[in-house]
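Troubleshooting: if your tokenizer reports a length mismatch, compare your output against this known-good record of 280 residues.
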Amino acid sequence: MTTYPLRKPLLNLSRVVRSPCQSAVTAALRGGILVAILLALAGCVTEYSGGTQMTSDPDATLDKRVALARQYIGVGDWENAKRNLELAQEIDPENAEVFEAFALVYQSTGEVEMAESQFQAALKTDPGLSRARNNYAAFLYSRGRYVEAESEFYRVTEDTLYSGRPMAFVSLGLCRLRLSNASGAEAAFSRALSMDRRNPVALLEMGFLRLEAGDTDEAARYHGAYKTVSPEQSPRGLLLGLEIADLTGDQDAQSSYELVLRNLYPDSPEYSAWMERQSR
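Known-good structure output:
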């Protein structure tokens, strides 16, 4: 389980890079990418290439190569992913989806400059490809380039037809937290929750923001909603519960949260910070 640092949560890359923005078929939010291989169009003449059935339609073949590449990306087979993307690029050297998929491969293999170059090529070719822009924004976030990431995520949220828009608002909020823009972060999380009221990240961060604003009751409400969607709380979720219990004087809840945090996450930054705070 990915944990967030205190007050300034890290973006869960697996969620942003391996999110529904990568394909029409996905696993869970924190799961791997599983891209379905496109079926050959009915009535097309088929041929075989490298042991994989392909159609004689170049566009359909390109789509299938990209789909295969995404499948290989999902299981960490970078060489086969690149092989299929190279074959796709032979069909269309300026295809935005091919550029984006190459970027994901290079990002995963630590070739940062090549990854950024491919992301930029994808967006230059198709500025309206929100999935690519979202993944590029996540890439920028992972590099600590929060101002640029915030700008790109904002552009993604402007695409009202993008299926990953609710998570883009969550990502925008996380960027704004990194930039110490609490009001902007709260606005972004509120928008995310208006589209997906069960988003655990938005609920948790709204709880912290309300707590920092001195609204303990509202913080407790958000924490309660968070617990309903994430019964197995993260260290950060337990920390929010601890802070609320501490402020409200609920000793039983405080002891319970502290016990769980100590037993399940003894090496977490949240537990270390809590114990340091108690020792003062």
